[in-house]
Each structure stands twice: as C-alpha cells, then as structure tokens.
Amino acid sequence: MDNGWWGPGRRPAFPWPAAPGRPAASWRTAALWRASSWRAGGYLLATGLTGLLLCAALLLSVTAAGVLAVLLIGLPLLAALALVGLPVAAWERRLARFLDGGRVPDPHRVPDRPGLAAWLRLRFRERATWRELGFTVLAAFVLWPLDLAVAGCALAVPGYLLAAVPLLLLDGEQVNVLKLWQVHSLWTAGLCGLAGLALLPLAGYPLALAAAARAGLVRLLLGPGRQERRIGELVRSRARLVDAFEAERRRIERDLHDGAQQRLVALRMTLGLARLDAPPDGPLAARLAEAHREAGGVLAELRELINGIHPQVLTDRGLPEACADAADRSPVPVATRFVLPDRLPAPVESAGYFAVTEALANIAKHSDASAASVEGRYADGRLTIEVADDGRGGADPGRGTGLTGLADRVAVVDGTLTVSSPPGGPTLVRVEIPCAPAGGGAGR
To answer: Which residue of 281, 362, 403, 439 shows the fewest CB atoms closer than 10 Å?
Structure first.
C-alpha cells in the first residue's frame, strides 16, 4: 500500500485507504457522499474539539503550576505536565486508525523492571516522550483552529448557499449569505442555491486533503522514529536468531541422542559379549576390557555433551528439576529451592538453566567453596535466580571466569546479571529475566 503523495502512474492520489483491505481512494472518489469523506470530516471535528479542550486544560494547568511553584507544590505538577503528551498521543493514534484503518505503532518500550519508578525513568529518557509533548503543544495552540476551520468551511459554505432560498422565504425581505452580502431577490437566492449544489460534491476534497495531512503528521511525529524502528528490528532479529539457535541445538541433541549414543551403547554391549567369549587370561581379553572401558568413557562424555547442549529433563520437567539435576552432578554440595507458579517460556528456562550450570561450574573450578545454593522465584513478572557459595570470592569477569558469556546469554532474553563477590567471599550471582508464565505444569 502506497501512503505517499503520488499513486500509480504518478497521479496525485488521496493518501489513505477507504477502509482496511480496500485500495487507496483517489481524488476522483473523495466526493462528499463518500464514506471516506465523512470519516475525514469526523476526524477533523474530533481533532479540533480535542485540541480546543486541550488548549484550555494546558493553560489552566500551567497557570496553576506556576502559581503553586512559589510554594514548591507546583513543581511535581510541572513535571507531570511533561508526560501529558502520552495520553494525547495515544488518542491521536487511535483517531488516525479510525480515519484510514492503519495502525500507528506505539514507539514506547516496556520497562525492564516493574513499578512506577522504572516506568517514569524510562519515559523521561525516551525521545518519543518529548516528541509527543511537542506535538501536544502544536495541537493545542496551532492545529485545532485549522482543523475546525477546514471542517467548518467545507460543510458550512455549501450549506449556507443551499439554505439561501428557504431562509429568504422565511424572512420575506432579505437573507445574509455567508455573512458577506445581502440577498433580496428570490432569483439571486436561487442562483446561490445552485452554486451550493455545485459545490457540494467538491466539499469532500478539502476535507480529504486536510485530514490526510493531519494524519501524516501524526504518523511522522507519534509513530516510531528511525532509531526506534532500528531498535525494534534489532530486537526482532535477535529473537529470531535465538529461536533458530535453540532449534538447532535441539536438533543436534536429538541426532546425538538417537544416533551416535545408541550406536555407542550397541558397541559397548558387543564388546561386553566379546569379553565373555574370549579366554580370560589371554591378551585378547585385556584388550577387549580396555576397549570396553574406553567405549564406556566415550559414552559418558557423549551423554555429558548431550546434557550440555539441551538436557531432556529441562524439556520434560522444567527449570526446577533441571537445576536440581545439575546440582546433583556438581562436585560441591548444592541445595536448590524454586518457587515458580508454572512452566516458563522455553527460551527463559533455557537461559536460566545454563546460567545456573555456568555458575556452578565456576564455583567448582575457582571458588574453593564447601557449599552452594540455588534459589529461584517468580514475582512481578520477573524470574529471579540466585546462586550463592561460601568460597573465597573475588570473581572478576575480566579474568575469564565465564561471567561475560553468562551475561551475554542472559541479555539475549532481555535479562540482567549482577555479581557480588568481594575478596574473601561469599559470592552471589543474581539473574533476573522478565517473562510471563507459559503454562504446562506448576513449578516446585
């Protein structure tokens, strides 16, 4: 769909569709009796009245805040006025959708943390908030008179001309046409009526042009900017890459589990049967026993590799059971405790599990700890996992302890990683991931 000013064949086109799924209406279809023209008139009246009310509200609020600012009471009100563009922009985007059926995307991001403080901090830092504030001032003091003037003139001029004859008949002496000249003759009033009848089909064109320009300004200022669009595309492409990466990991895990592992199991069984048939004291029995042990070692390593790619227990039982299994395999005693309402999305569970396994691996290699704990909980739309140990501390991402890679893995799902590890210990690794329960069974 072409939303530009030039349509097919480089002819001027009316730049919005008449309705969702319909082709864009051209200037030849913008007559007053068309539904698109009535929508344009209603759109201009709605934006004009909204701007008029907004102008009065802003003048009253700014005056009150200025008077109260002397007592420092008006300062919070002035700060709140900076956010007045948020509801106004949401209303303008809804009106633009009513006009042409096309949705104007919301440029604002979702806060990383729940709560009013995080929401306010993000809104004051976003460029979209200040663009919306600027548009609000423009709509309140500049645009609404133009909207009402175009809508009023497009509908009032033909109406006044058509009403010349009835008004003259009611008055009997004269009628003021458009408040510009006086008509005393019924013949002249009839000519005015004919002129109004001729202008009536053309009244839709100024409505269409003004509404299209107004909606285009809304899309330009209140939709996502170039930076927001790039950030959104980067987020979507990262999500697609993560999904593709996880799908490939699962495919490799399945192929190894169903292919190479089964063949190694069969080979080990064959070697075990061959040991039974070989002379017990001969060199062949010793070599078969060595080959049997090697096959067992390779099978154990392959199982560890498969479990590291994507453990089956994570898919079948969820994050608490998978972390408990990882804790059982740790050389350091680990206590686990999870309080989850339900299963979480697969990428979140995968990121949480590998964060735990990487943290436990660091504890076993570098901490000299005698005990560790893994605790997970879900609250306020966030999964929080804490891995603690009583080791010597001093964990530093710059020394290659795996914390940098762990932070990158968590960041893929918009999570955060914080590490507290003073020299002498203890060490606490906290992972926070925003998510919503996906269902499929309660956590423990």
So the answer is: 281
